[in-house]
Amino acid sequence: MKKVFGLIFLLIVILFSGCNLVEAIEITNNDSEIVKSRSEEIIRCFDERDAESIKKMMCSETISNVSDIDEQIQSAFEIYEGKSESYEVVYAGMAGSMQEGVWTDKHTSVKIKDIATDSGGKYIISYTEYFIYDDDENRVGVIAISLRNDNDDLLVGIGER
Fold it and tell me: What is the pLDDT of residue 83?
């Protein structure tokens, strides 16, 4: 009888865990697609020198508090030579906090590394983005973007105060 009860209990645990595991995989895949899409858009903006699209990605707090945001973007474009030919997106996952199973703070930091351009440039672009921030909706969006050389030395920051 104990074996039957134990087996039934084990099956119930596996079934419920399996459902949560499937949900977690679906959420993770969706987050990865969002990060991949944002990273591709940032690369496109650097390749095409599209300052307006970079600005639209930035959260309203950054736009309001960084008076020289336009100059920062232009500085990054001046340093970034050529158009990208290859790159790799490194993304560790989402971070933040939840209350009762609902995200109240959801953000990520992403590194686009091994960027090689057609003019021989080698760069790293990193950015931090909030997707949810219940305490201050003005922080939702990209907080900052950093352009670095291939040794990971900062060349210019966009959104830096």
Answer: 97
Helix ranges (DSSP H) in 49-102: 51-57, 60-65, 69-79
Q: What is the pLDDT of residue 30?
A: 85
Which residue bears the tokens 């105060």? 161
CA geometry: angle at 73 spanning 40 and 123, to 5°? 55
pTM of the complete model: 0.81
**What is each CA distance from 136 to 59, 60, 132, in whole angstroms?**
11, 10, 9
**DSSP codes of every residue in 114-143:** EEEETTS-EEEEEEEEEEEETT-GGG-EEE
3-class secondary structure, 82: coil
Q: What are phi and psi of 42, to 5 degrees?
A: -65, -45
| Assigned token pair, 45 | 């903006």
How much is the pLDDT for 92? 79
Residues in the chain: 161
Q: Which H/E stretch holds residue 91?
A: strand 84-91
Over residues 79-132, the pLDDT tens digits come to 999 999 999 999 878 899 999 989 999 999 999 999 999 999 999 999 999 999
Give the integer Cα–Cα distance in Å for 43 and 27. Answer: 24
